[in-house]
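Protocol step 4 of 6: structure prediction from sequence.
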Amino acid sequence: MKQKIYIETTIPSFYFEIRNDHEMAAMREWTKNWWDNQRHHYELVTSIPVIEELENGDHPSKKETLGLISKIPILPIHDEIGEIVDGYISHHIMPNDPKGDALHLALASYHQCHFLLTWNCSHLANANKLIE
């Protein structure tokens, strides 16, 4: 059985990143390498909020970015996910934006994803956000 990975918005975004400073170029190459060579080892999932964020973004490769995740299954948003989001926000685990990072984390948690793949190191991939 493959481990399930929630693909957050920053992954398809960085696949088509156009900034060329060293950090952005490195993140783009690491993303492309993982996507092109490793993703088939996992069960990938995403969500409507990811698609909406990509659709609403202002970037030149929007069509390609959306195409990258077009065949990935979309997780349903059940009522309980709203309660999880509220808990993350009320306990100051995530910022007070119910349609933002807390929703991605709640979706991945509720649907028992093994990993949430992201470049968002401020809120999602932040060691200070570990819940014990």
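Step 5 (inspection) to follow. The mean pLDDT is 87.
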